[in-house]
Amino acid sequence: MSSKNVWDNENLIKTLLENGVAVMPTDTIYGMVGKAQNESTVSRIYAIRNRNSEKPCIILIGDLSELDKFSINITESQKDILKEFWPGPVSIVLDCPDESLSYLHRGTKTLAFRMPRPEGLRSLLVKVGPLVAPSANMEKFPSSESISDAKGYFGDKVDLYVDGGVLGGKASKVIKLNTDGTINVLRV
User: Fold this and answer.
1) CATH for 10-164+171-180, among 3.90.870.10, 3.40.640.10, 3.40.605.10, 3.40.50.740?
2) Cα separations (Å) of 11 from 8, 17, 163?
3) pLDDT one-digit tens code per residue, 80-101
4) Beta strands in 4-109 (DSSP E)
5) Which residues are CB-neighbours of 134 under 8 A, at least 6 positions away?
6) Is residue 26 within 8 Å of residue 90, measured between CB atoms?
7) What is the pLDDT of residues 11-69, one digit of tens each?
């Protein structure tokens, strides 16, 4: 990715604040993003990607305090563990029993969060709020490495494409942080 902050983009900010859907580079790979706290935006992302309706999406956050928006209560020891991994390319699954968020947790009663390392991306998240960010591909197809790959999958079904060049990254590591402070690795 170029050194230019691709996330400091007026069109991107406007699109996301208006509950639109965008494809943009994340800290790992291209993601299809939209406001996590807007149920219709989340539903639209599932429909566009043809995503398995039982599979929750990873949520990008700009600050640890944003966990409060999702009824996530963490202990001090869990907070210390989170700070070991964040910011960075690790998505962490936390318990979320709040039924009003079932459109996000899909009955799993857990949500996966990631606080990205790039400061520009965290700044965007603070401006627009937490974003669901599944990879920019159709379910069971390879991740998009470029905007042209993403356009091949989605065409005009998304509101905005943000080009960050060719990304050869890989999906984030996923771990489950249990209430007792133990960790289970779910994806390397």
Assistant:
1) 3.90.870.10
2) 9, 10, 12
3) 999 999 999 999 999 998 999 9
4) 22-25, 30-35, 58-60, 90-95
5) 31, 32, 45, 49, 51, 57, 58
6) no
7) 999 999 999 999 999 998 999 999 999 999 999 999 999 999 999 999 999 999 999 99
